[in-house]
Write a structure and sequence with these properties.
Low-confidence stretches: none
Strand content: 25-35%
Oligomer: single chain
Largest sheet: 6 strands, antiparallel
Mean pLDDT: 95
Radius of gyration: 14 Å
Structural class: alpha+beta
Length: 131
């Protein structure tokens, strides 16, 4: 059974994310589990996520950026008031941040770090050549 679409294709925060994510070498977009995902061989960013509350309920973050940072960076990022551990992906090191709180430089840096943590070495070399 396919997941329902959980985003507005005209969302300005999604447009910001698309522009930054798709500027990375060989980056592509697909819809995964009802939300936009950006990938090379593996996904390096998601648009939108859900956090499971200790009460058992769920809290939606429809305009969040989900990334896979380095573990040392994740500790620092989790100190931000807009950070959360997303359901399903959180146990493997992914974190969520509200896109509206990120300026363009932060967005680019976070995406690039997650990209470096997931992309094949040959693709990462293209990123280094781009810089």
């Amino acid at each position: 059974m396919a997941h329902p679409q959980m985003f507005d294709d005209d969302d300005p925060q999604l447009a910001r994310l698309r522009k930054a994510a798709l500027s990375l070498p060989e980056a592509q977009e697909k819809t995964s589990h009802g939300r936009p995902a950006f990938f090379t061989k593996k996904i390096f960013a998601h648009f939108g996520g859900t956090r499971k509350l200790v009460t058992g309920g769920m809290e939606q973050h429809p305009q969040a950026l989900l990334i896979l940072p380095d573990p040392m960076d994740a500790e620092v990022l989790m100190e931000r008031p807009d950070a959360f551990v997303p359901m399903y992906l959180g146990p493997t090191g992914w974190i969520g941040l509200e896109l509206e709180t990120l300026d363009e430089n932060d967005l680019s840096d976070l995406l690039t770090d997650s990209y470096r943590n997931t992309a094949p070495a040959g693709v990462i070399r293209k990123l280094s050549a781009k810089d």
